[in-house]
Design goal:
This protein has 2 domains: 1-39; 40-207, Beta-Lactamase (2-Layer Sandwich), CATH 3.30.450. Strands 1, 2, 3, 4, 5 and 6 form a 6-stranded antiparallel beta sheet that branches. The chain has helices at residues 3-6, 11-35, 42-48, 50-60, 63-75, 79-91, 97-104, 106-117, 149-155, 200-207, and strands at residues 121-127, 133-137, 163-164, 168-170, 175-186, 189-199. The protein is globular. By secondary structure, the chain is of the alpha+beta class. Helix 7 (97-104) crosses helix 8. It starts with a helix and ends with a helix.
Length: 208
């Protein structure tokens, strides 16, 4: 006889409490991980990420990504259109045809392969010269990155540079990570930005 039946409690009655317990465990683990970010100074973070920074810079030079950014820049998206897409993106938490199209396109599949190949990465997204997504895996929490320092500090007004964000809980993946932003260069000109998240687990392992 089922253990739940022997105790006089139906499984359906226990499920809400089981789900709540799972949520509490997840939140506790995330809180503990987030607290660990206080242990890393900016200089140590940069040193621990040295290899990953080079990896992200190399990824940003991939012809497939450069071509995709160049093509989207040529479309000349207006800020109104970007805002419309961003609003629709944020209004739907689950997958949509548009979100999925940025994962299944050639540059989206490339980013997906990089994330799945390395447990040290939790996300990667490619943006154009206005901060609008070109490709992303998994889907980001918003479509437009142009108002965030990870994009503006890396695009740097067209004079691209590497930018390392602080360790933080990433809402789209529920993972504590540091985002590394690298400029996408086309014949030496900055045309976009690639952002890749590096997990705290990698940093803690690297520190040991």
């Amino acid at each position: 006889m089922n253990a739940f039946k022997r105790s006089g409690v139906r499984l359906s009655d226990r499920l809400p409490r089981l789900r709540s317990a799972c949520v509490m465990i997840t939140l506790t683990l995330l809180a503990n991980s987030a607290g660990a970010q206080q242990d890393f100074s900016e200089s140590e973070l940069e040193e621990l990420l040295r290899v990953k920074i080079r990896t992200v810079q190399h990824m940003a030079l991939n012809p497939l990504l450069v071509r995709a950014v160049r093509q989207q820049n040529a479309e000349g998206l207006t800020l109104d259109e970007i805002a419309r897409r961003d609003k629709a993106w944020r209004a739907t938490k689950g997958p949509t045809p548009f979100k999925l199209s940025l994962q299944t396109s050639p540059p989206g599949r490339f980013l997906r392969d990089q994330i799945k190949r390395s447990t040290s990465f939790n996300e990667a997204f490619l943006t154009d010269n206005q901060g609008a997504n070109v490709a992303a895996f998994p889907a980001t929490s918003d479509y437009w990155q142009g108002d965030e320092e990870k994009w503006s500090n890396s695009f740097n007004g067209g004079d691209g540079r590497v930018f390392i964000g602080k360790l933080a809980l990433d809402e789209s993946t529920n993972t504590v990570a540091a985002q590394v932003s690298a400029p996408v260069l086309d014949r030496g000109k900055t045309i976009g930005v690639l952002v890749v998240g590096v997990t705290i687990n990698y940093l803690q392992t690297k520190r040991q």
